Every structure is written in structure tokens, then in C-alpha cells.
TrEMBL record:
It holds the Pfam family DinB_2. It comes from Paenibacillus terreus. This is DinB family protein. The lineage of its organism: Bacteria, Bacillati, Bacillota, Bacilli, Bacillales. Signal peptide: none annotated. Residues 10-145 form the DinB-like domain. It comes from the Bacteria.
Length: 155
């Protein structure tokens, strides 16, 4: 598997997400549109949190983010259930922008190595497959973010 291709897909999806995020007025970041469970703030935190949990976690490496991120942005969470203040938009944006480089620095050149957690939800067998699994997850959220931003701009 080509490192260049795997990380290129991540960069491309991140750029699409960033374009949506930049087009949304600040006042709409924490609005949960009708028919949705989550806000754009949650979407951003979820993408960042799950990338590290999927790739680092299943690869068997320490997850760089604090565990509290999973309580705010993990699967099944939503802003209506938050207790306390989640990480700020600015902090999440910084992580979102820096994360691909950190992932490259950690995993480039070892994408063919086996994962540590063989029994994983994506049935990934190599670190490269984890990168693709995370990319697929982010692509689905890019579509959700796109739809949410369109709705929020009309409100």
C-alpha cells in the first residue's frame, strides 16, 4: 500500500471538511439542526477523536488525545448530554489541522505492519487499512457536515 496515496486521501477529505467549516458563521457552530442529534462543533470533535482512536488505538499505540475527548465526541454522544465544557472550537481546529502531519510522522513507512488489536470493528489487519478505515469514516462525516452546513446557512 502506498503511504502517499493513503495520506493524500486523508488530506483531500480534510480539505473538503475545512471548506465547509470555514463557510459556516461562528454563531451556528453549536446549533443542532432539526432532525440531527449533533452540532458542527460535535462533528469536528468527533472526526478528530475517532481518527486517533481508530488509528492509534487499534494499532496498539497510546492515543494522544485526553480520554475526555471520547466522553464529548465518541460514538453515541451528543451535545445535549455533555457535562462540562467540551474542548473549544479553536483547540479542535488546531488538532484537526495538525493531526494529519502527526499521523504521517507516526505511521509513514509502516502501513503494511499488522495491527495490535486483531478483533476490531473494521476487521482491519494492517495499519494502512486503519488509515483507510479512518478515511472512510471521515468521508461519511464530510457528507454529514456538508448537509448540516447547508441547513444551518438557511436558518
Amino acid at each position: 500500500m502506498s503511504d502517499v496515496y493513503a495520506f493524500h486521501l486523508m488530506d483531500r477529505t480534510r480539505q473538503k471538511i475545512l471548506k465547509h467549516l470555514e463557510s459556516l458563521p461562528e454563531a451556528k457552530r453549536n446549533v443542532v439542526p432539526a432532525g440531527f442529534n449533533n452540532s458542527i462543533h460535535w462533528q469536528l470533535g468527533h472526526v478528530v477523536t475517532l481518527a486517533d482512536r481508530i488509528i492509534y488505538g487499534i494499532a496498539g499505540k497510546p492515543i494522544p488525545l485526553p480520554e475526555s475527548y471520547a466522553t464529548f465526541f465518541g460514538p453515541g454522544t451528543k451535545p445535549a448530554d455533555w457535562i462540562g465544557e467540551p474542548p473549544s472550537w479553536e483547540e479542535l481546529m488546531q488538532l484537526f489541522n495538525e493531526q494529519p502531519s502527526r499521523l504521517r510522522d507516526t505511521f509513514a513507512g509502516i502501513l503494511d505492519e499488522p495491527v495490535a488489536k486483531k478483533d476490531n470493528f473494521g476487521q482491519a489487519e494492517t495499519i494502512g487499512e486503519l488509515i483507510h478505515l479512518s478515511n472512510g469514516h471521515e468521508s461519511s462525516h464530510e457528507g454529514m457536515i456538508n448537509a448540516m452546513v447547508k441547513i444551518l446557512k438557511q436558518q
